[in-house]
Amino acid sequence: MNNRTNFHTRSGAARVFSWVLALALVLSLAAAPAVTASANAGTYSAEVVFSANGVDISGKLALDTNQVLLGVLAAMTSEGQTLLDAAGYLGPQALAVDSMLLGGAFGIDLATIAQNLPGSIFDPASGSAYALEQDVFDQIMGLLNGEFSHNLQNNQDVTVDSDALMEAINVLVEAYSDIPQEIIGMMTIESSNASVVVNGKPIQVEQIRCTADAETSVAITAALIAPLQNNAQAQEALAVVIDEIAAASQQDLGITGAELVQVIVSELPQQLPEAKEELAAEQFLVTSSVCISSATQMPVKFSLELQDADENVVISLLMSEGLDFFRLEVTEGSQTVSALQFEIQENSDSAFVCEFAVIEGDTEDASLRFELNKAGKAFLVSITADGETHSISGFYTLSDTLFSLTVDKLDGQEFGGTITLNLRSDDAIALPSFTEVTKMSEEEFTALVQTAMEAAESLSQMFG
Length: 464
Fold this sequence. Notes:
Blueprint: H1 10-36, E1 43-52, E2 55-64, E3 69-78, E4 81-90, E5 94-99, E6 104-109, H2 113-116, H3 134-144, H4 147-156, H5 162-175, H6 179-186, E7 188-198, E8 201-213, H7 214-225, H8 232-248, H9 257-281, E9 285-293, E10 299-307, E11 312-319, E12 325-332, E13 335-347, E14 351-360, E15 363-373, E16 378-385, E17 388-398, E18 402-410, E19 413-424, E20 435-436, H10 442-463
Parallel strand pairs: 6-20
Antiparallel strand pairs: 1-2, 1-19, 2-3, 3-4, 4-5, 5-6, 7-8, 8-9, 9-10, 10-11, 11-12, 12-13, 13-14, 14-15, 15-16, 16-17, 17-18, 18-19
Helix pairs in contact: 1-3, 5-8, 6-7, 7-9, 8-9
């Protein structure tokens, strides 16, 4: 044996291989059903390319939904000549890597690995330095023999009785059929003409306000509990809904649906008088309102006001009639606490300009501006924060199968290269012919490990 035998360690290459193999099997078995279910068959890819001084460095993620094949590819070229490349492929049929640094492609045929792994250098009975630990080997063989896919299927098939759930919902709908109207009757509803300012423009509106004080809030809570009291069928239905939702979300509530319903029916009503006194003492008042434009009948403002003895907080959403301006704000009294604002400043055949801003108090804390020159296929993105503005700009192309965006300037200045994002819907990848790893001899696999480590060292020196 040559000096490459120093790579023979159970805790080294063999252990790494075992985990990579197990992970590949898990990913292949888990991902295949989801991918094959895709209705839009084809090959889709996302690629990033950094170019400077004649050198291109690229990375690509591609998915072929016809073959059910995922590919991760990277390359470096100089003046069109490939300096290095690497690719990894994963699918239900195989796991493979391909690189000029390795001298070819190496992989594992997942369709035959159950037959190939026993008797290979990874079999504990082989006596090879790369032999896996017996328990690891047994676990992998268990995956190959379908135990994983069986367990995965069991985990995915969460038991939810849809018929029981729908029946329970129907019972609750019937039990609560009169409650919405009853609640509306408890609340104070007013309608009046008003004026609302949206993006600096006054708009005449009809304002509809709905108000509930402490007494009303407690009465509404009581009204929601009432259909459950002395109604065993409704209680059972609510318990079924709670249990089925918990099962579907695979969440342990720490309490059954029936137990939670009993808390609602038995304990909550006893707490309502005390809650009413506390809310009344705090002068609690909640008001919701909607403002509808008198001219267009479009809603231009929604708001929720929470008021007590100490503060008055209003959460509002304002929008223009043309839906080119939105502002979500929180105010206390007459002061703006914070706001998020989005505005489309121009949308024509030649240009599109929009801006998103974060506002604290009366100050614009940060903003993001996007400008698109449709005629020139150019774009500019600028970000302002802490009083400083930075930008990136470049150009783009768009077709039925390709969207390509290239950044060539930072803060208006060229930076000696370009960064390009390519999104394709008609790409192509293919699983290469490869050397079957499970059929390699101990010497051959040692040589492969040595080559891989030397390649890693070369890359470390190149980019370090």
